[in-house]
Structure formats: C-alpha cells, structure tokens
Amino acid sequence: MRIDKLLSHTGFGSRKDVRYLLKSRLVKVNETIITSAKHHVDLKSDQVFVDGTRIEYEEKVYLMLNKPAGFECTHTPELYPSALELLETYREDYIMVGRLDVDTEGLLLITNDGTFSHNISHGKKEIYKTYYVELKESFDEKYIDILKQGVFLDDKPLKPAYTKVLDDKTIHLSIAEGKYHQVKRMMHLCNNEVVYLRRIQIGELKLDDTLFPGESRPLTDEEIEMFI
Predict the structure, then answer these.
(1) What is the pTM of this model?
(2) Which of 6, 104, 138, 152 could be stapled to 100 by a disulfide with Cβ–Cβ 3.0 to 4.6 Å?
C-alpha cells in the first residue's frame, strides 16, 4: 500500500495533509525517513512511525456508532458536521451503512468492507431496520395492517412494514428499505407526524445501550458474522 493512502486511512487527514507530513520528514518506515507519497509499505513486515509514534493499521474495520442528531452521514457535509468526526480515527474509505437523516439518532454502522455494506443494503437476504418513533398525534392502530400490506411511496410499493405500539404516541416500526425520509413519509400517510426518531436495530443487531450519543465501539466477531 502507498504510504500516503496508509496514513490517510489511519487518521492523518487528506492526501494533502499527508504530503505535508512527508515533506516535514516526520514519517519513517522502519529506520528510514520517507518523503515520497508513492513509497510502498508492506503491511505485514514494515513498521511505520509518524513523529516517533508507531502506526497500527487495521485492514478491515467494523464499527457501531450511536449517532446523535445534528450530524450528516457523508464525507463532505454541507450544513452540519459529518458523523465521521465523532470517531477517534478518520479514514477516507469509510462507508456509512444505511445513512440516517441529520435529525435522526441511533444505530449507524461504519465499515470499509464493501461486501459487508452491500450485504446489508442490497444483499439477497432481506434485512429489516427497526426505529423507535415518537409521534405528534395518537397512532391509529388501523394502520398496522395497512403498513403490513405495503404502502406506496413515489408511486412504488414498499415491502411490508411491521409496527409495535408502545403507547398511544410511541411505536416501533420495522422497514426493509432505506428511502429518503421514509419513516417520516410513511407516518404522513398515517395522518401523523414524527417528532423524534431513533434507529435501534439492523437485522438482529441491536444498538448497544451502553453507548452514549456520539460514542462508538468495534463490532464483535459474532456481530460481524450476522451480515457476512
């Protein structure tokens, strides 16, 4: 792997930032100072240091983030900071699996494994996402069967959605797709309005209730295997 790509993936900023480190003679591979961004690193045998600190590289990364409101799920945010800024280390190859709206909280998976991401978002196995939903008005339970039959958005049918009523204004809603503002638009079809939304589960994987908003942790091997 090129040294500039390695350092960018381990939290040292953009390729431009990395080139500055190299020109400043702060990067060593083994005992040799490296100034060329094209220098190739053997991940199995080489040791890389930046300003005297050894760099550890993880080839595949799988993280669970409890996303708070006020963060965009993108590498290039426009109005709000990126959810990736909440992580200890930024990598250009991170993929946010099943992006959440700015004002939506909860379970966000982050990885650099394209197959893992594809299996969740577009795989053959149907993976439902479950949301905790607080509503402006009381939820009319006649919509439980209507949502289960599948409603239309953008003139296209949705797969069955499953509703669990917690109280008159609070539900759990499980959906198979991840369309733009889908939960909010589905509640509009139910003559209601979402006032608070948090994703709590993807497939069998539940949001770790020990994570405070903005905190993250690596997935366990068992959790990774749910989607591989």
Answers:
(1) 0.80
(2) 104
For 62-123+205-225, CATH number? 3.30.70.580
pLDDT digits (tens, 9 = 90+) for 62-86: 999 999 999 999 999 999 999 999 9
Is 101 known to be catalytic? yes
The SS3 call for residue 201 is strand
Q: What six digits make up the tokens of 114? A: 């394209």
> In the chain, pLDDT over 70 holds for what percent of residues?
100
Q: In 3-state terms, what secondary structure has residue 104?
A: coil
- N residues, the chain: 228
Per-residue model confidence (pLDDT) at position 127? 95
Give the span between the Cα atoms of 161 and 190, in whole angstroms: 13
Contact 162, 126 (CB under 8 A): no
Cβ pair 134, 165 in contact under 8 A = no
Under 8 Å between Cβ of 81 and 71 = yes
Delimit the CATH 3.30.70.1560 region(s) of the chain: 129-202
| 205 neighbors 226 (Cβ within 8 angstroms) | yes
- CATH 3.30.70.580 in the chain, residue ranges: 62-123+205-225
Task: Please state the CATH superfamily assignment of the domain spanning residues 3-54 in this structure.
Answer: RNA-binding S4 domain (3.10.290.10)
Catalytic residue among 101, 140, 167, 168: 101
